[in-house]
Design brief:
By secondary structure, this protein is an alpha/beta fold. It has one domain: NAD(P)-binding Rossmann-like Domain (Rossmann fold), CATH 3.40.50. The chain is built from 7 helices and 7 strands, in the order βαβαβαβαβαβαβα. Strands 3-2-1-4-5-6-7 form a 7-stranded parallel β-sheet, with helices on both faces. It starts with 8 loop residues before the first strand and ends in a 21-residue tail after the last helix. InterPro entries: KR_dom, NAD(P)-bd_dom_sf, Sc_DH/Rdtase_CS, SDR_fam. Keywords: Oxidoreductase. Pfam families: adh_short.
Length: 270
């Protein structure tokens, strides 16, 4: 008798629509069971039903608001206890937001809870199991604003810069232990999340990528083993040059003396 090994279950946050729903579709199409996490239970149930019917995979709903500690803790417990889950897609996030000069402390806190705290805690909950078994994957969805914070106002870019740096550090720590890590930096993508900031059609059409196009490109980068995937970037060598320039500075970033340009040119006896 031939025994077919069960593929890892994939837990996807922000799975009720847009990018998260597309990831759920693609992984289910590949034969992976999925756990769908978002606030809107009705949408999750409809998606789970479709995935089960179309791809004959187990699709489970775990409705939770990741900004609420008690609800987030349910997801953390599932990640730490369910040995079937081997892939985490951290997609849930708040888009845009008001300018820093106009925002409130509560609005900043809400963004940090969803864009920074939630993915960090979910990874921390899952990682001990992945390390113990020596395999697994973590996909973190950031934004091109991690590289270009001047393009938008507000704290969103800073939160996505955290996701990029966090993923790079995570890769350094776990790559040699069998864990695959990827950070995806989408540009403007046509999702409902833009409705809160005036709609995606405020951008030139050439800047707007459809969700399926973005997710398919990101998964191709995942299959190719990329650490950082920028679906819109035509010349991948540009990212490599960017990284080389950054690494070139590393030996000069911490020294025992300040750079000469910060030394006063006024004679001591003046």
């Amino acid at each position: 008798m031939v025994v077919v090994e069960q593929l890892d279950t994939v837990l996807i946050t922000g799975a009720s629509a847009g990018i998260g729903a597309a990831y759920a579709d693609r992984f289910a199409r590949r034969g992976h069971p999925v756990v769908l996490v978002a606030r809107n239970e009705e949408r999750l149930e409809a998606l789970a039903l479709r995935l089960s019917r179309e791809y004959a995979v187990k699709a489970e709903v775990l409705a939770a608001d990741l900004t609420v500690p008690d609800e987030r803790a349910r997801v953390e417990r599932r990640l730490s206890a369910d040995d079937a889950i081997g892939v985490l897609v951290n997609n849930a996030g708040i888009e845009g937001g008001p300018a820093l000069t106009q925002t409130t402390p509560d609005a900043v806190q809400a963004m940090i809870e969803l864009n920074v705290t939630a993915p960090s805690r979910l990874v921390a909950a899952l990682l001990p199991r992945l390390l113990a078994r020596g395999r697994g994957s973590i996909i973190n969805i950031a934004s091109i604003l991690a590289l270009a914070p001047e393009l938008f106002d507000g704290a969103y870019a800073a939160s996505k810069s955290y996701v990029l740096s966090y993923t790079q550090t995570l890769h350094k720590e776990v790559a040699a232990r069998g864990i695959r890590v990827q950070c995806v930096l989408p540009g403007v993508t046509r999702t409902a999340i833009w409705n809160a900031t005036g709609g995606v059609d405020a951008f030139p059409p050439r800047m707007i990528m459809e969700v399926d196009e973005m997710v398919d490109a990101a998964l191709t980068g995942y299959d190719q083993g990329e650490l950082v995937t920028i679906p819109s970037l035509v010349d991948g060598a540009e990212w490599k040059r960017f990284e080389e320039a950054r690494r070139h500075m590393l030996p000069e970033l911490s020294r025992s003396v300040a750079a000469d340009r910060y030394k006063s040119d006024i004679p001591e006896d003046a």
